[in-house]
User: Fold this.
Amino acid sequence: MNNQVWVNDVWKSFDGGRIEVLKGVTLEVTQGEIVALCGTSGCGKSTLLNVISGLEEVDRGMVRVAGRDVVEESTRVDLLRHHIGYVFQLHHLMPDLTLAENCMVPVIAAGGHRKDGWARLHELAQATGVTHRLGQRVRELSGGERQRGALVRSLMNNPELLLCDEPTGALDESNREKVFELLLDLVRERGRTLIMATHDPELAGRCDRTVRMRDGRIEGEASHG
Amino acid sequence: MSLWRLIITNLRRHRVRTAIGATGIALGVATMLSVVGLLGGAVKMFERILRTDSQMVVFERNVSDLFFSNVPVGLVEELEGQPCVKDAQPVLFTIIAAPDRPVITCFGIQASDGRLKRGEWLQGSAAAFRDDAEGVVLGERAAGFLKAPVGGTIELGPGTYTVVGVVRMENGFENGGVFMPLAACQKAFHKDGVCSVVSVALAAGHQPDEVKQWVSKHHERLIAMENDEFSRSYSQFKIMKTTAWVVGGCAFLLGGLSVTNTMILSVFGRIRELAIARVCGFSRGQVARMIFGESLLISAIGTLAGWVLSWGGLHVLRAVPQLQGYIEPRVGWMEVAAATGLAVLTALIGAMYPACYAARLNPAQALRFE
Assistant:
């Protein structure tokens, strides 16, 4: 299997080096694999996701996604446009745009054809059950609908790799289960790779592999056959 | 859905802020077009005072103002003796005072001068204006404020003159002025034998250079210029035109600050959104283009409003009875294009800092921003 993500001895600190968040993290994720990053708050899960997506630059070490070094700005932009989808704990949709318009933002960024974008939007909206809400402004949607909308947006450019930072963390129990099931289905059906940061051991247990982080380091891993 | 849709949406959701930014540009455009238009009109009116049916003007070299120019009247005869000159007319420009009116423009002219023939005679006739008499002709407005009927007398400066006619002139300065026989004017102002300028009409088939060379050769102290050349080089006109553009430029500077302020608020108010756009694949350039696009749209709205404001304002000024004849705004395509170009430039410069800030935003840090 090809390595989709390759992180080698990555160090990352903030505040001029005073706060070390990643301390020599090494991680490999193969194509189609579903990986849960677990650990307490502040252990470096979100920073690791940001480093993989290129949103944060590393101090030391190497990050490679789809065989490309995440160093140059142009590579990062290209990966975010065509290869990586990102879902946050908070949906981060633009409140004054409709859900459909929000979902089309990645298409605008990538300079994609509007017609293809709309076709893809309708396909994903159907799969996530938000077709009837596409014309609504974000402020008119429920929490679960917003997070499903964020999921649709992350998949608009058909990314190979989906990074999720506690995607169900802000949802109630019923919505949490629905959104997580949907996420797994979408990723598995399409053979995509998923790396998900989560506090929830139950959700982590349903992934292919769990990577446990502690104090900026990888403490251990477990496969779930 | 396009980048423009995002731009328009952002401007629409902060309507007041957008309106304030556009107002700054609108005032800049309106001020520039109005001031340039008004002063341009004033310059044109001055030019028309100088020109009767002539193509050239002769005056004293190196004077800052034509009121200080002394040209010997004998030059008129010399010029008319040249084959290249069809007609030469002396004019003495002065400022004269009347009781209750400290400043009235006075034109010392000969009866053969074409300017009185251009006017509409309301009282009296051109025949009554004679070179060897001391009868004066009043512009319509001057007749109004001097309250002097034809046949009556008025005090002007050191003397008393008989009013021999009232004429309606198109030009506000002439309509509010007094036409005096040249000899009487010279006597009143102790300018015996001199005038301010001599306007020259060329004989058919002759070139202005012939007059220039002749004047240069025979009267070193004087200079001959074509009317357009004079307009371009006359320092008073230059000062007026420069003033107009400086005032307009200052208005644009304020408009630019207003756009910068609007765009800074716009960027700082949606740092997370900009970060999300970056996460969705927007490049730094795309983010900057979005901010510049917003600024340009504000500028476009402001420019349109500025056109309407200046057009309306100038029409209102034109309709004010007291200003009739003095306000003849001239707003050409050049002025409109320059004001629009400045508005675009202002928008681009005004958006530069906010666009750079937005483009350099670290998306991960910005998403943590509260």
